Amino acid sequence: MELKRRIDYRNVFIVIYFLVFISYLVIGLLPANATDYHISGHIIIPSIGLKSDVTEIETRDGKINTPDTIVGSYSTNKNKTLLIGHASTVFESLFETKVGDRVLYNEQIYTIVAKQVYPKSEIRMSRLLRSSNRNTLVVMTCAGQDLGGGDATHRLIVTAEAE
User: Fold this and answer.
1) CA dist., res. 139 & res. 47, Å (int)
2) What global pTM score does this model have?
3) Looking at the domain 34-162, which fold is it?
């Protein structure tokens, strides 16, 4: 009888251990979520099923730091906003967008007017952020060969103008 109790307790311990372990994997290893950021807006691209919170970002030492799991926005001009995100997370389907697709950003509807991939070395932020006559979104993510550390050799740039 005593041997049977030990086995029962051992089985209970094993079940509890696996439940805790699985909970840790599901909850503990998930990347930071939007609650870790100050949310300043929202973006929806229905054609690729994208829905994300957006946080304003700032430059540090002349570099823009991309949020891990949501979209970051940066602007130096009233009519032009740069939206950036990682191709491995929030913008994993951005390559599937097409000219003519709609983008909803902060309750304003935009239409994609251009989509191109450029070598990272050719990207000029001053040109990307230059003022525009229309409200314009420049959506950018990494493309090309992975360089590690969330960087790559190229950038996918999707341009959308307000309707």
Assistant:
1) 15
2) 0.75
3) Sortase; Chain: A; (2.40.260)
Domain boundaries, the chain: 1-30, 34-162
* Cα-Cα-Cα-Cα dihedral sign, residues 94, 113, 81, 117: positive
pLDDT (0 to 100) of residue 150: 79
Is residue 105 within 8 Å of 128, Cβ to Cβ?
Answer: no
Indicate the burial class of 17 (C-beta count within 10 angstroms; 0-12, 13-18, 19 or more): exposed
The most confident of the ranges 59-63, 69-73, 147-151 is 69-73
The per-residue b/e assignment along 106-139, b for 16 or more CB within 10 angstroms, e otherwise, is eeeebebeebeebeeeeeebeebbeebeebbbbb
Those residues with Cβ within 8 angstroms of residue 155's Cβ, 6 or more apart along the chain or in another chain? 117, 118, 120, 123, 140, 141, 142, 143
